[in-house]
């Protein structure tokens, strides 16, 4: 009996030691993860890449005037960036192999710095487009890597909140980046806006190096693994939603300045204020959608699609009837809906491929940016051929298509399907 009690006591002691060792290991793991400061650095990274990408939106008219091109041609500065980012996301994900993700992110942010500096000194639209190619390279890589890193930086129960924070950089780019760029463009010219962006990129580069922990890749992403994900119906549905929502948004939003000037009589200074309202609403939409998508992805995306469709289509009649204030109110509703697109579709795709997050992120970024490019391109054709009414009708129609896809497509996982 005594021997048995001694054995039990010894086992308990051993268990206690093992528990202490496990606790110590978990504590060290949390410290090495980087935690919320690292998540904040990634949010700054998404803010920077999206602001760099979308900077021409608030500067479209002065860029076209200075370089002697039409609004549709100036819109190519957005189109080319999206095309390159769409190609760069999966290709760079394959090429970086097992390289430390912190090092890769820093190198890509340095590329963005160089790209914005080149735009400052662009003497014509051709050189500006070269700069925008570099922006596409940096953006595609940063977004593909950063969007799936939350799971490696915070405990599992905090991943949804961390993902929302990372994607808040997208909405913050609309709140702060694009309006600030438009303001700087008004005060110092569009080149000054690109110079300021180069400075922001440098600051974020330093933050990534200092705040991110080492992030060695758990394994190299292979082409077969990326393409194999396309056999999963929920993931295909998610990519269709991304394509339709983003193409619809950008076909209209890329030309929102000419639309506001034409249908609502907005002055240049008022455009920046309207874009600010869009961004503030988008930031709120990001966190609302992040919380909703974690519980019911289909229901969240159905609501986003419906609101986005209605808001886009109603901007012209509201602008004609109520002027700038009426148009601004609907643009804010538009922002609320679109602000939730990135985090909700990313949540959908991560749930559809929990075993291949980085590969799914690469597909997400590729489709997202291809849709940006396609939206800006077809929006430019609509703007040049049909005017502002054509741009708005195109954007609203694509958003309505996304609503249909969300209703009929397959949700990821039983719980999502049941709740969504």
From TrEMBL:
Predominant place of localization: membrane
Biased composition (Basic and acidic residues): 19-29
TM helices/strands, residue ranges: 36-55, 75-97, 104-123, 129-153, 165-184, 190-215, 235-256, 268-289, 296-315, 321-341, 362-383, 389-408
Domain Major facilitator superfamily (MFS) profile: 38-414
Highest taxon of source: Bacteria
Keyword set includes Transmembrane: yes
Compartments where found: Cell membrane
SUPFAM superfamilies: MFS general substrate transporter
Pfam families according to UniProt: MFS_1 (PF07690)
Chain intervals for the UniProt region annotation (Disordered): 1-32
Name this protein carries in UniProt: MFS transporter
